[in-house]
């Protein structure tokens, strides 16, 4: 199994705004009172387009799907939470915590990928769990080490343990389960998505070990990464707040590897961390300030990797 792909699916927003339904447990979202909704959406579109251009300039194959005004889906820019694509031609569809995010799931996107020559053999649909109040938000809830058949999951209201284990059994991943926290007004609160505090790449991993309060769990996660001969690059909780954990390794032209992140994440890194990363990959960053503030997600959340085989 490959860890990185050259093919990415992205959804261009039409009515992007802060989603009040996700703000209850995504503490990275902020209200920008000074901007009108139209301005917020226009800024998000500008950031999106500039980001896509940067990816395409280095040879990443980006499939763009335009969001629709109806139904109302303010978070559609983050497709990796409701769908994932796998090498055997499998597609997984996930149960979402926020009711208005469930409307993001669109079958026409599968038709579009098939029109592009991708092969879809089976759809694994976990969405029924929503009815019972259980959620697993795709590669937000899980960080996949596809090469080593491991899946990392920080449990939270959006990342249910039993569902995660079911996914791991279906896709033959070894589950690595822990809890990750952030400090909010002096209190330790569960981080809503694993992919804001860690990123697993081919030859290295970026992680905020300080988010894992339980020492045994912390050691288990770090041992797991190092056991797979990955260089572990540690980031701080302050850097997590700048979305330095929300990064994704992709392949550009000539199989060249890039670590994709936001400008805020890039700026938060120390010279030493940048040097460590650049031993492995080229850094590609783009400004996502509006998307990060209103959406509470960053570069990684915007990209659904397409690992499907091609005709």
From TrEMBL:
Record InterPro entries: Amdntrnsf_FN0238
User: One GO MF term, please?
Assistant: transferase activity
Name listed for the protein in its UniProt record = Amidinotransferase
What Pfam families does the database record attribute to this sequence? Answer: DDAH_eukar
UniProt key word Transit peptide: no
Family matches, as SUPFAM superfamilies:
Pentein (SSF55909)
The record's keywords, sorted A to Z, are:
Transferase
Against PANTHER family, the record matches this protein to: AMIDINOTRANSFERASE
From which organism does this entry originate? Flavobacterium luteum
